[in-house]
Design a protein that fits this description.
The chain is α/β, with parallel strands linked by helices. The protein contains 20 helices and 14 strands. The chain folds into 2 domains: 230 residues, D-Maltodextrin-Binding Protein, domain 2, CATH 3.40.190.10; 197 residues, Periplasmic binding protein-like II (D-Maltodextrin-Binding Protein, domain 2), CATH 3.40.190.10. Strands 6, 7, 8, 9, 10, 11, 13 and 14 form an 8-stranded mixed sheet that branches. The protein has a 4-stranded mixed sheet with strand order 2-1-3-12. Helix 1 runs antiparallel to helix 3, helix 12 packs across helix 13 and helix 19 packs antiparallel against helix 20. The two termini are 13 Å apart.
C-alpha cells in the first residue's frame, strides 16, 4: 500500500510540477484578530524522560550522511563552507556529503522517486507540506526524541532562545503534532512600495487598507507615461495573504477541507479583477517582471518574499554609483482586519528513516547548523530571518540590519505572522489557486466560478 501511495504522490508531482515561491509556512507568534491555532501536541519538554534516553545510547561516530539541498551560487558557496566546517570539527567524525537536488519542485520529485525506489537521502531541505507527503509514506523520522535527548538534544536555554512560532511550523497535524522537520530560518510575504513616488502623489505612508491601496494604484496609473499601480505576479502565497487580511482562510481547521471559495476569497479576486479591468494593475509577462518594473518605476507596488530584498536593492541601485535611484521600503499587506496578517514561511530540514546511527548523525548536523553562529551566517546570505533570539541580538546581525533597513523593517512584522497549511497535498492546492487567479485575470471565469472549481479539485486531491 505504501508503494502505491508513493507512486500516486509521484504522479501528482509530475503532473503539476509544483514549485514554491517562497514558500512557504509558519505560525502566529502573537494573536491576530482570529483565534490563534493551538498546537496539536504538547511541546516536548527540554529534559528527556527515561523512555526517550534510548537516543542517548546511540553512537553516531564515523557516519557518512547524504544531504540533498537546493542552494546555488553564493548560497551554495556558503552552505558548502558550513558543511566543511562541521565535517572538520564535529567530535564524532560525522561526514555530511552535500548534493544539489534541483529547486524545491525538482527536489520533491526526486525524493518521491527515491522513496519509491527505496533509496532516499539521509536528510534533505523541504517545505513542511512536502515533508508531510514523505511522512505519509512512512519515510520521515520524527525529531521529538532527538530534541529531548539528555545527551544529544536541545537544552532549556536552547528552546527558550528559538522563536516558538518557527518550531510550531514543523509540527505535523497528521502525526499528532510530531516534529517532522526543523527550521534553519524563515521568510515572509510583504508589499514592496516606492516611497518617493507615493510622496509625489501626496501620500505620506503606504496603504493600510485595501481601499487605500486601490486609491493609490489609481493615482499612480498613467497610460501615456506607461505607469501602473500594481505589477501582479500570480502566487498562492500572495493570495493567502489577501484572503487572511480580509478575515478569511484557505484550509479549514481540520486540515482536510479547502475553503478558499468563501466570501472573503471571492471578494479578493473580485477586487483584483476590478484593478485589472480599470488598468490600475496588470499581470507580468515573465518571471521577476514585477521586480524589474518596480525598479524601473513602472509599477508602484509589488508583493513578494523578503528573500527577494537583495534583488530588489540591486535592481533599484544606480549602476554608476551603486546608490538607490529612489527611496523604497516594504510594508505588511493592506488589511480590513483589526491588525495586519503576514504570511511567514520557509524551508526546513527533514531526516529520513535509515539507521539509528545515520538518523542521529543527521540530527546532530541540524542541531549544529541551527546554532547561533551558523544561523547568523546563513541568514545573511539567504536573507531569511534567523530562528534564534540570540542571533538577532548579536552585534553581527544588528549591523546587518542597519545596513539593510528594509530587512530590519520586515523583521518587525513577525508579530503578525501566520503560516500556510503544513499538509500533504498543499503543493497541488497551490497550483489550483494559481490557476484560479489566472482564469479570473484573463477573463476566462468569474471569481466565484474559478474558486468553486479550484476548491472542488482541491478537496478531491486532499481526500486521496
Amino acid at each position: 500500500m505504501k508503494s502505491n501511495k508513493v507512486w500516486a504522490l509521484l504522479s501528482v508531482a509530475l503532473v503539476f510540477g509544483m514549485v514554491l515561491s517562497a514558500c512557504k509556512p509558519a505560525a502566529t507568534p502573537t494573536p491576530t484578530p482570529r483565534p490563534k491555532p493551538k498546537p496539536t501536541a504538547t511541546p516536548i519538554p527540554p529534559t528527556a524522560t527515561p523512555e526517550l534516553d534510548a537516543i542517548s545510547q546511540i553512537d553516531p561516530s564515523g557516519q557518512e550522511i547524504l544531504y540533498w539541498h537546493v542552494s546555488t551560487k553564493i548560497h551554495e558557496e556558503v552552505l558548502l563552507e558550513l558543511i566543511e566546517e562541521f565535517n572538520s570539527t564535529n567530535e564524532w567524525g560525522i561526514t555530511v556529503k552535500p548534493e544539489y537536488g534541483g529547486y524545491y519542485g525538482d527536489i520533491r520529485e526526486k525524493i518521491l522517486a527515491a522513496i519509491a525506489a527505496g533509496s532516499p537521502p539521509d536528510l534533505s531541505i523541504a517545505y513542511a507540506n512536502q515533508v508531510a507527503e514523505y511522512a505519509e509514506a512512512g519515510q520521515i523520522e520524527a525529531l521529538d526524541h532527538y530534541i529531548a535527548s539528555q545527551k544529544y538534544g536541545l537544552t532549556e536555554d536552547d528552546l527558550e532562545d528559538i522563536f516558538p512560532a518557527f518550531l510550531e511550523t514543523d509540527r505535523s497535524p497528521a502525526l499528532g503534532g510530531a516534529m517532522t522537520s526543523f527550521p534553519p530560518s524563515r521568510s515572509m510575504e510583504v508589499m514592496y512600495y516606492n516611497i518617493d513616488w507615493l510622496m509625489r502623489l501626496g501620500y505620506e505612508k503606504p496603504p493600510e487598507t485595501w481601499e487605500e491601496f486601490k486609491e493609490m494604484c489609481m493615482a499612480a496609473t498613467d497610460t501615456e507615461a506607461g505607469t501602473s499601480g500594481y505589477a501582479l505576479s500570480v502566487s498562492a502565497s500572495t493570495f493567502a495573504g489577501w484572503v487572511w487580511t480580509r478575515g478569511g482562510d484557505i484550509i479549514a481547521p481540520d486540515g482536510k477541507t479547502a475553503i478558499f471559495n468563501s466570501p472573503e476569497a471571492v471578494d479578493t479576486l473580485t477586487f483584483l479583477k476590478e484593478l485589472i479591468d480599470g488598468g490600475y494593475a496588470y499581470q507580468i509577462a515573465e518571471r521577476y517582471g514585477d521586480q524589474t518594473d518596480f525598479a524601473n518605476e513602472k509599477a508602484l507596488f509589488a508583493f513578494g518574499s523578503t528573500a527577494g530584498l537583495p534583488y530588489y536593492a540591486q535592481a533599484v541601485a544606480d549602476e554608476a554609483t551603486g546608490e538607490p535611484r529612489f527611496e523604497w521600503s516594504v510594508a505588511p499587506f493592506p488589511h480590513s482586519t483589526a491588525e495586519p496578517v503576514v504570511d511567514i514561511y520557509g524551508p526546513s530540514i527533514c531526516v529520513f528513516r535509515t539507521t539509528p546511527e545515520k538518523q542521529l548523525a543527521s540530527w546532530l548536523f541540524i542541531r549544529w547548523f541551527t546554532q547561533k553562529e551558523q544561523t547568523v551566517r546563513w541568514a545573511k546570505v539567504a536573507n531569511y530571518f534567523p530562528i534564534r533570539k540570540s542571533a538577532v541580538e548579536s552585534a553581527e546581525m544588528q549591523a546587518y540590519m542597519e545596513e539593510n533597513p528594509q530587512y530590519k523593517q520586515a523583521f518587525g512584522f513577525l508579530a503578525w505572522g501566520k503560516g500556510e497549511p503544513t499538509i500533504a497535498g498543499w503543493e497541488t492546492v497551490r497550483g489550483l489557486i494559481g490557476d484560479a487567479i489566472t482564469a479570473v485575470v484573463t477573463a476566462q471565469s468569474t471569481p466565484q466560478e474559478a474558486l468553486d472549481y479550484a476548491v472542488a479539485e482541491a478537496n478531491a486531491a486532499l481526500a486521496e
